């Protein structure tokens, strides 16, 4: 209107119902103005892909950034960071350890998880532990869920019976890489021998034990309740340790082989 109809700025703003300040305000590029915030958010998310908005904002505050939460949240949503993000799972780098047979008991314990289902299709898990020296089954815990706290509690019960191991060999499952389990091992001064990801042969002793347990118990029976699984498992563990010959132990059961190890160990 100012250019075509040659009316004053005041009159044109009244007709358009705009303030004269809006007419005289210089046009700005919002994307260019928000670029520092975008760069700061990208830098945080690149390293910490699972952080939400408030963790990112608190981090910006710790970096003495002057932007308020409203502006940061607007840019955060515009970047699509408020949507659920799928991040690539990082494979931990582990040192390969030679799988040698210990010369004495309680030097290395091997642990692992298994899963199966009841007749009513309810799933459950087992937590198996053996001594690598004589393949002695230390115990099997059964439950629908076995978090890290239950793992440490069960291992404490085994330590009260069999004594403390010098090291534990295990895979990289979430329960075994959790802070709860690693702190517990550090507190008791127990070394953790993590196998390399995707290399179950590096924990071959427990894998062979799992096969026997699978064939002779889990795949051999139909279970209605966890009580049935515990009853048959306890009976099988006793037979496995006391009666069942083990090829790698010279056709001796683990209990008999353990007696030889204890007799050969110098006092």
Can you characterise this structure?
The chain is built from ten helices and five strands; from the N terminus they run H-H-H-H-H-E-E-E-H-E-H-E-H-H-H. It has helices at residues 9-16, 20-24, 30-47, 53-62, 69-78, 148-162, 179-188, 204-218, 226-242, 254-264, and strands at 108-117, 123-131, 136-143, 167-170, 191-194. 45% of the residues lie in helices and 13% in strands. It folds into two domains: 9-78, no CATH class; 108-264, 2-Layer Sandwich (Nucleotidyltransferase, domain 5). It is an alpha/beta fold and 267 residues long. The relative contact order is 0.10.
Q: In total, how many domains does the architecture comprise?
A: 2
CATH class of the largest domain: Alpha Beta
CATH superfamily of the largest domain: Ribonuclease H-like superfamily/Ribonuclease H
Q: Tally the helices.
A: 10
Low-confidence stretches: none
Helix content: 40-55%
CATH architecture of the largest domain: 2-Layer Sandwich
Counting DSSP E segments of at least 2 residues, the number of strands comes to: 5
Query: How would a textbook summarize the main sheet?
Result: 5 strands, mixed
In the sheet with the most strands, the strands line up as 3-2-1-4-5
Pairing-aware structural class of the strands and helices? alpha/beta
Mean pLDDT: 89
The fraction of residues in strands falls at: 5-15%
Calculate Rg over CA atoms: 32 Å
CATH topology of the largest domain: Nucleotidyltransferase, domain 5
């Amino acid at each position: 209107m100012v250019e075509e109809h040659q009316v004053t700025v005041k009159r044109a703003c009244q007709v358009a119902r705009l303030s004269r300040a809006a007419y005289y305000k210089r046009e700005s590029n919002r994307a260019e103005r928000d670029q520092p915030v975008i760069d700061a958010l990208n830098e945080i998310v690149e390293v910490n892909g699972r952080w939400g908005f408030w963790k990112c904002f608190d981090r910006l505050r710790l970096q003495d950034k002057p932007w308020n939460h409203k502006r940061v949240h607007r840019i955060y949503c515009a970047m699509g960071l408020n949507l659920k993000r799928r991040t690539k799972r990082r494979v931990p780098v582990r040192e390969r350890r030679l799988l040698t047979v210990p010369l004495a008991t309680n030097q290395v314990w091997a642990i692992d998880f298994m899963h199966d289902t009841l007749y009513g299709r309810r799933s459950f898990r087992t937590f198996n532990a053996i001594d690598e020296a004589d393949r002695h089954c230390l115990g099997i815990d059964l439950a629908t869920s076995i978090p890290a706290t239950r793992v440490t509690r069960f291992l404490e019960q085994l330590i009260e019976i069999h004594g403390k191991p010098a090291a534990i060999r295990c895979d990289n499952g979430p329960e075994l890489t959790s802070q709860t389990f690693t702190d517990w091992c550090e507190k008791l001064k127990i070394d953790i021998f993590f196998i390399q990801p995707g290399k179950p042969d590096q924990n071959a002793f427990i894998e062979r034990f799992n096969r026997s347990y699978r064939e002779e118990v889990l795949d051999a029976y139909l279970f209605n309740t966890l009580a049935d699984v515990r009853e048959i498992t306890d009976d099988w563990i006793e037979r496995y340790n006391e009666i069942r010959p083990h090829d790698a132990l010279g056709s001796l059961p683990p209990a008999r082989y353990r007696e030889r190890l204890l007799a050969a160990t110098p006092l």
